[in-house]
Amino acid sequence: MSYLKNEVLDGQQLSTLQEKEVMWYGKAKYGIPGKDLTGITIDPLLLQRHMLFVGSIGSGKSVSLFHLIDGLRKNATEDDMFVFFDAKGDYIEKFYQEGDYVLTNEAEVVPGMVRWNIFDDIMATMPSKREEVIWEIASSLFKEDIESSSSPIFATGARDLFAAILCAKVREIEKGGTVENHATFISWLQVATDVTVRNLLLNHQDLKWVKHYINKSNDPKTNQSFFMHLYQNLFNVFNGTFREAGNFSLTRAVKERGQRAVFLEYDIASANVMKPIYTLLLDIAMKNALGQKENEARGNIFFILDELPLIPKLNYMDNALNFGRSLGIRVIAGIQNVGQVHHVYTERLGDSILSGFGTVFAFRLFDEASRTFIRNRHGMNKKMIAYSASNASKGVQDAIIDGHVIEDWDLTELSVGQCIVSPFNGGPFKFYPLNYTK
């Protein structure tokens, strides 16, 4: 409804950037250019409190993300690094630089392609933390099987067997043995039996309890059930290029940084099989970033997580958002709607994660839950309005009403590519980014 007067008395007000107006001008050397010479300078404070881009398919959120990433990469220092979750290949195509790492399940050789080695990642961890990492890896890879299985005892036992096998093999490496890779490990596993595993664990008294799962006095069918779950999970996860020999360590890459990026190219066609690997890789990166001492933290680690809900629940996502600011962790995520986040993280934890993003770019939204999320970020205001009465003899009518700073129609009336920016430290405003070209 058009009012003759619409004046905010209390609360914030939704504004529109005027011609040549640039938000946070002078706070940084890069930003997102808009129509009519408007723009947004990416104040470091925005990055410190993380940024979320939410909009339906084709609403234009990728354009703003591309502008942002372009500026970040061009202005990165030797102490910075990037971790991309790339579901469509757009980020590799636009932002790959020589020296970056690309993890992909594609057989075709691409620049920067590396093969991950779980053993190298464990060995790159400080010795006192290695077995903790091993158990986290095992828990992550077997989580879905344990939660969905009608007989979780077998999936749980398979997880414990896998962790014990890794512990034993890592101890052999620590004593000067050859570093394993996925090819040698899977080859060993393919011919392993309950006897093989019991012999491997023979000299490790602290792992003796695991042998009870596959005790030689057990019914052979029981032992075989544990191995079936072990094979099922590991052969599915260490599949395609992730079964090949490699020496890339994400832990080492986080320590070295050097302006480099790690691209996790997500193969949607193999999504059900590969989800645990990508979840584990992101968890490893976040765990290492969170494990820094605050007084030793340097530079920034940018997590670019477009289509965030494609990734199963990340164990460290909530901590990265809420405690990562002083450690240089900067999360930049894209989602289509809040329902996707609730589906992955549950409604309560999902709301906690969404509230961890200080600045939100909201594009066209077609679902009520997402519009409500954006609307509630700025709450309500009190307005003085004036309107023409339907009865002409009554003239102009004045009223004081309560409303939302961002109303439903503010979001539904956005053009494709246009957005409402909801910053952590001020009122919201409408912004129309220019198309990204490179």
Describe the structure.
The protein is of the alpha/beta class. The chain has 2 domains: 5-114 and 248-431, Rossmann fold (3-Layer(aba) Sandwich); 120-241, no CATH class. Helices cover 40% and strands 17% of the residues. The protein has 16 helices and 16 strands. The strands form 3 sheets. Strands 2-16-15-12-6-11-10-7-9-8 form a 10-stranded mixed sheet, sandwiched between helices. A hairpin with a 6-residue loop joins strand 15 (419-422) and strand 16 (429-431). Helix 5 (130-148) runs antiparallel to helix 11 (271-290), helix 6 packs across helix 9 and helix 13 (338-345) crosses helix 14.
Please provide a brief summary of the model.
With 438 residues, the protein is α/β, with parallel strands linked by helices. The chain has helices spanning 44-48, 61-74, 90-95, 118-123, 130-148, 152-174, 182-191, 194-200, 220-237, 250-256, 271-290, 317-323, 338-345, 347-355, 368-378, 408-412; strands at 5-10, 15-16, 22-23, 31-33, 39-41, 51-54, 81-86, 101-103, 261-265, 301-305, 329-335, 359-362, 380-388, 396-404, 419-422, 429-431.
Shape: elongated
Just name the CATH architecture of the largest domain.
3-Layer(aba) Sandwich
User: How far from one another are the termini?
Assistant: 41 Å
Q: Helical segment tally?
A: 16
DSSP strand (E) fraction?
15-25%
How do the strands of the widest beta sheet line up side by side? 2-16-15-12-6-11-10-7-9-8
Helix content: 25-40%
Q: Biggest sheet, open or closed, and with what strands and sense?
A: 10 strands, mixed
Name the CATH superfamily assignment of the largest domain.
P-loop containing nucleotide triphosphate hydrolases
Number of domains: 2
Regions with pLDDT < 50 over 5+ consecutive residues?
A: none
CATH topology of the largest domain: Rossmann fold
Q: Report the C-alpha radius of gyration, rounded.
A: 26 Å
The SS-based structural class is alpha/beta
Whole-number mean pLDDT: 92
CATH class of the largest domain: Alpha Beta
Q: Can you count the beta strands?
A: 16
